[in-house]
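Async update (no meeting this week)

Hi team, since we skipped the sync, here's where things stand on the single-chain job. The sequence we agreed to prioritize is pasted below, unchanged from the tracker. I ran it this morning and attached the output directly underneath so nobody has to dig for it. Comments welcome in thread, and please keep replies under the output.
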Amino acid sequence: MALRMHHPLLAAGAALLALTLATACSPTPVPTPSPTGFASEEEAFAAAEATVREYFEAASAIDLSDPKTFEPLFDLTTADQNAFDRKRYSEYQAEEYSITGASNVVAVQPRSWDPETQDSIVDACVDVSALDLRRADGTSVVSPDRPDKQDLQIQLAFNSGRFLIASIAGSDRPICER
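Output:
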């Protein structure tokens, strides 16, 4: 079942989260799968987490006034998430929105991994408290009721020897400490 991110700010928030993490700590080597996949669940989840963090890093590097900066994010997605991100960021750019602040991936927890297809599902906690999306006139589109931390479920598809994000949606597992 494909899940979609239904809140426009979640996509932008998720994208900005990785920038903060990239500057805060040194990266851990990411397991490289064989052409047939990962040898263990541990390797798969390490690669899934790395992909999630890379996605948010790419989102953090987006300049809404320059559509060329969207491509690294699109390259990390497939299926519904790719279509969602392409549509959403194109709309943001057309409406002359701007993103201020950043989001932060607080935690990523494994949910499931299929050794046959190599697909994986993880839950992530993303802190969006410092993130804002503004219209061209400077007014915020963020609801004042938005929680500071978002629980997300992220589905990853194994494709050509790597994970791609297939969908991002709200998670039914509360992993964020509020």
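Quick observations from my side:
Helices lie at 8-24, 41-60, 71-74, 79-94.
The longest helix spans residues 41-60.
Reply here if anything looks off.
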